[in-house]
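Suppose you are handed a protein chain with no further information: no name, no annotation, nothing but its sequence. What can you learn? This example shows the usual starting point.
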Amino acid sequence: MIRRAVGIVTLLAGLAAFATPAPAHLARRAQRRNVMLSVSRRVASPGTYLVVVSVRTRQHKQQVTVYVSGAATRTVRASSGRATVLNYALTLEQAPTKLVARAVSPTPGVRLAMTVRAKSSSPPPSPTPPQPAPSPPPPSSPGPQYPNPYTNLVWSDNFAGGAGSAPNSSNWNILSGRGNCGDAINTNTSSSSNVALTGNNQLAITAQQSGSSYTSAAIETNPITSFPYGAVEANIKLPPGQGLCPAFWLVGDGSNWPQGGEIDILEAPSFNSNPTIAYFDLHGPWTQPDPNGGYQSYESTTSALGDLSTSFHTYAIIWSPNQIVWTIDGVEYAQATPASLVPQGQWVFNNNQSWSIVLDLAVGGWPCAGQSSSCPSAPFPAQMLVNWVRVYH
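A reasonable first move is to predict its three-dimensional structure. Written in structure tokens, the prediction is:
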């Protein structure tokens, strides 16, 4: 994901009236491994550069962690079949400099390539006033609607209630503990300043800053026993600002994570001033120990919608035997089957009959990895708004 100090935008790259302790599935470990391969390119002039990193393994699929100068780390699934490509747009204010890309893998045999192409350069001094930066290209047109076979509404919350009141305790528990986004720096609380209804049929999860401390909230439903399979969706407006990490996800048996499984319907870490990348992930047990401790067996992303904080979007999964489809506003952006998992991954998404829904807004952690002390730099208070959550069969 990405940052502000050098203006990086990565294009590719889981809640109470009663406060309850954070369950085991909220604790994810991150562990670095030895560097296996490194490449570099020298950049002579300041300006904006397109950096393309290509990763390929010589054997079966495996997870590879990629480090690029000035950018957040990214873990990808690489294989010998075709290269996994990550794109970065980097604005360099000082040059000459050397851009370095490193690939870190549990086994040798990773092939790494990097190309750097200038998109624009700093103009020479001139009495003419500088021209405004060009606008980013508009998001691509949405694709066709994905057919959803599930139409029977079996669970929902429209967040009706007075302004400042807690979400319905029959539906939600408010979790305490540290935020869930890698090394998140916020503390989750049950304070109405962090989680409350707006009085306008909305839930607001609000991240607050006090000096160098941050508070926010995470809420989780009681287990919903009508799973597996169905459609799960929420209508959400994400907050702007670098260093925020909002998420909407499902967890199976949370006390037995990762064996119970986890489906990340949306993770939207903000690496720059606006959240532009939606992540779709699966976590579950591996037949061999996961060296990163994250047990992530599938991941896909999209940046097709541009700035996700400008409006409400409906984020959903359509979940069938041996298949999970991720949609945004009804358009498919990712699809996973047992064959999509890393070689050690196990498909546990046909097993659990009870799953819980989680909504949370974390601060720091993954979007700020390797960043300067100025990250997070979001405008606080930062607010994630939810119109409704629905489950269909």
